[in-house]
Amino acid sequence: MKKKRSKFKFNKTTILISILLITSYWILFSKSFLIQNINVYQNNQLINSDEINKFRPLIINQNYFLLDEKNLLDQISKFQKQEQKMTINKKFPNTVEIYTEEANIIANVTNKEKNQNFSLMSNGKIKSQKTTKPQLLKLIIADKETLQEDSMILNKESMIYINKAYKYFRKEFNQTFRNLYIYLKAKEIRFILDNGTEIWIDMTVDYQTQINKLKNAQPILDIKNKKYEYIDLRIQSFEDTKQKIIYKEI
Fold first, then answer.
1. How much is the pTM?
2. Measuring CA to CA, how many Å separate 115 from each of 141, 144, 148, 187, 205?
């Protein structure tokens, strides 16, 4: 009986291994899983793009399961306009979908030290600017380094942080801004209110925590009716009940 039980286990294992090998071979070498279709979407609309022919050899007849979307994105990005954002998805069993979206201008950017003017695109890159758009937020880069066109001055996380902090401050205090200073190396932003008051925020710390400190300090720190040289919200407190704020009133 013992020998028969052992033989049954051996046969069962052999069958499972055989099934796995056959399945793996079928997945890796079957023509059913070779990429044959490329669909390109511009702003979620299917388009016929001549640029497909440039990177078509990188995709066609690649195995669906082995195709690395991130690596493919890196390879074909050079064929796309730098003002575009691009994502790639695989659609089972043999299709690749490429989504492109034109980056739009979201802010005016000025390099304070070098007197350079740029447009900040939604993909984080900057473009040379001849005329400013007054309806957009004005960002002033306080770092001394010269900015280069098409350089990525803000990553996605920083752009999201600045946008959310800006909207949250506007919501809580109903204040407009003259400018918004960014210190790239120090990871610091400064809201410049219409009366010249500077509000300092650390981009490595939750913006709500910092802005709420100022909110809780009202009306002692009355930013609506008083002018301050600066209000520094960057100091972190070790106790929730001690929310330290450094400021200088004019």
1. 0.61
2. 10, 10, 13, 21, 30
Contact 164, 179 (CB under 8 A): no
Query: How would you classify the pairing of strands 137-141 and 126-128?
Result: unpaired
Please give the chain's pLDDT, 250 residues, in tens: 445 554 445 577 887 887 788 777 777 778 888 999 999 888 788 888 776 777 888 899 999 998 988 888 888 877 665 556 788 999 999 999 988 877 788 888 988 777 888 988 887 888 887 677 777 888 899 988 788 888 888 887 888 899 899 999 999 998 888 889 999 999 999 999 999 999 999 999 999 999 999 999 988 999 989 999 999 999 876 555 557 899 999 8
Structure tokens at 49: 């793009």
Q: What is the DSSP letter of 100?
A: E
Containing H/E element for 18?
helix 2-29
Q: 111: closest CA among 119, 102, 99?
A: 119
SS3 content of the chain, % helix, strand, coil (to 5): 30, 30, 40
The C-alpha angle 250, 179, 132, rounded to 5 degrees, equals 150
Q: What's the length of the chain?
A: 250
Radius of gyration of the chain (CA): 28
Q: Strands 45-47 and 116-121, how do they pair? A: unpaired
